[in-house]
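Notes from the 1:1 (GR / supervisor)

We went over the backlog. Supervisor wanted to see one worked example end to end before approving the batch request, so GR pasted a single chain during the call. The sequence is below; no edits were made to it. Supervisor asked that the structure be written out right there so they could see what the output format looks like.
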Amino acid sequence: MTVAEFACESTSVLEVRLTSQVAHVRIDGRQFALERRASSLGAKYSSRQGTLIVDGSFASFVTSGALSGRRCWTPDNLAVYVP
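Structure output shown during the call:
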């Protein structure tokens, strides 16, 4: 399991726990469980609640019904290992 923290544009902190099958996401006091999906854009996890894409030091997270997503980066700009 990989645990990572990303700083987002909106001053929020995106906390993720990644495995080869599932991502557990926490942001702004809310929690999400997302399943791994095939993607050519990095590691993609999604459910009816939202979608997370992790690519190196960058993460994008969009909740269902949101008009825009959150763009986030690791504080040290180091790539995140995705199992």
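Supervisor's comment: The longest strand covers residues 30-37.
Batch request approved.
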